[in-house]
Design goal:
This protein is of the alpha/beta class and about 240 residues long. It has 2 domains: about 110 residues, Cobalt-precorrin-4 Transmethylase, domain 1 (3-Layer(aba) Sandwich); about 110 residues, Tetrapyrrole methylase, C-terminal domain (Methyltransferase, Cobalt-precorrin-4 Transmethylase, Domain 2), CATH 3.30.950.10. About 30% of the residues lie in helices and about 20% in strands. It contains 9 helices and 10 strands. The strands form 2 sheets. Strands 3-2-4-1-5 form a 5-stranded parallel beta sheet, with helices on both faces. Helix 7 packs across helix 8. The longest helix is centred in the middle third of the chain and has 18 residues.
Length: about 240
């Protein structure tokens, strides 16, 4: 056994105004932490101020880990744990380490022998899968698909074939301002019998979750997804 501190993975709400209750273990652990690895310091401070108002923000040490971070800097962020101090890892929204740059810190923590403790909290991917009615035994998350239409069409066809062959639900996300374009391309590309679920604004008052066949989506007024965080899921049956 070593005397290292622990790395706590702390989920955060999926959006403003949603249903979010602080888990008991987080309520117990958070007062002990004053050092955090975060995606954006501003968002992290807002979360801490809102849910832990007694915590002095000026005394916190925040390390930003995002797409602009030099990979060589990540190991240094974990240095406090090597000195016996517990630290927290916060995502912008949802679970850290899942479709999130914090995964690099978790990987390095394991390599260094630092204990990693995930805490309970919301995950848009699991909530979307739960609510979709699609296969939850076999599923694959692809993150962001190619932004250019020709590559996107090719990828959607490949994933649809994979889905039908393996009976495997395919999940992906998109930058909120491009949701409409991606949805329209999916409706034009996927087979009529393929099931598609759109899960937007999960846990928020404006939550939208519907699963339909592609040919039924084409007969429906599509939701306005502009600037709304969404997860797309589909399950193919091989019939075109």
């Amino acid at each position: 056994m070593n005397d290292y501190g622990k790395l706590y993975l702390i989920p955060t709400p999926l959006g403003e105004g949603g249903s979010y209750t602080l888990p008991a273990d987080l309520q117990a652990i958070m007062p002990q932490l004053d050092t955090f690895i975060v995606e954006r310091a501003k968002t992290a401070r807002h979360f801490i101020k809102q849910y832990f108002p007694g915590k002095p923000l000026q005394e916190l040490q925040l390390f930003e880990l995002n797409e602009h971070t030099d990979p060589r800097e990540v190991a240094a962020m974990l240095q406090p744990t090597l000195e016996g101090k517990d630290i927290g890892l916060l995502s912008e929204a949802g679970c850290p380490g899942v479709a999130d740059p914090g995964a690099e810190a978790v990987r390095l923590a394991h390599r260094a022998g630092i204990e990693v403790r995930p805490l309970v909290g919301p995950s848009s991917l699991l909530l979307a899968l739960m609510a979709s009615g699609l296969d939850g035994q076999r599923f694959c998350f692809h993150g962001y698909l190619p932004p250019q239409r020709p590559e996107l069409v090719k990828m959607l066809k490949q994933l649809e074939q994979q889905s039908a062959r393996r009976h495997e639900t395919q999940l992906f996300i998109e930058t909120p301002y491009r949701n409409r374009q991606v949805l329209e391309t999916a409706l034009q590309t996927l087979a009529p019998s393929t099931l598609l679920c759109i899960a937007a604004d999960l846990t928020l008052p404006t939550q939208y979750v519907h699963t339909r066949r592609i040919d039924d989506w084409k007969k429906t007024t599509l939701p306005d997804l502009h600037k709304r965080p969404a997860v797309f899921l589909f399950l193919g049956d091989g019939v075109r």
